[in-house]
Specification:
The model is unreliable at 101-109 and 124-129 (pLDDT under 50). β1, α1 and β2 form a beta-alpha-beta unit. By secondary structure, the protein is α/β, with parallel strands linked by helices. α1 (14-31) runs parallel beside α3 (74-92). The chain has a domain at 4-142: Arc Repressor Mutant, subunit A. Helix content is 57%, strand content 9%. The protein is built from 8 helices and 4 strands. The protein has a 4-stranded mixed sheet, covered by helices on one side. The protein has helices spanning 14-31, 45-49, 74-92, 106-109, 111-125, 131-142, 148-172, 185-201, and strands at residues 4-8, 38-42, 56-59, 64-68. The termini are far apart.
Amino acid sequence: MKYQFLNKTDKDMSNIEQFIDEFYPYAQKRLSIDKPVTIILKSDSDNAKKILGKTGYYDPDNLEVVVYVDNRHPKDILRSISHELIHHAQNCRGEFDDSGPLYQGYAQDDDQMRKMEMEAYLLSNGDDLMIFRDFEDKMKKEKGMINESLEKKDLEKKIAEILKQKQTKNKEKPQPLQEKTQISDQQWYQQELYKKLAKKWSK
């Protein structure tokens, strides 16, 4: 099921579109999406200035995922798209059929909508299936950006180098003078002899 991409900003979002081209088939299969969706990127400078401004929303009636892009890192935009696609998958399952209108605070007032919102957080990038994170790691491995065995070897090599440098520095440092706590047998004998002679001749 193909998606439609609309860039309603004045910015070049081709990097986001290119990523979605790879991500959407993965998400579609993982989430069993069986209805077309339109992914829309919007710009809203006033919204971007608000600390608690909107990052995106899903319109179940028009099957639209809308995400705001102003002053956001591309990865953050992609996470929002992933989150809203969970809601689209819920809509494909018919879970929006009996829901009321989506208003501010619906996740606190409506138990069903709250459960759906929780699922979207968990599945998109939380502790459950982690749709976006799994795809990100899969893509990095395929493109050679992640090589766990090499990373481990590199780490072990760096640790060995640091330890070697530390040992070399310690050898180069002048060692502090230490008090002699042990004496040889000959020194002990001489000291004892001196004590006895001193005692004898001091009488």
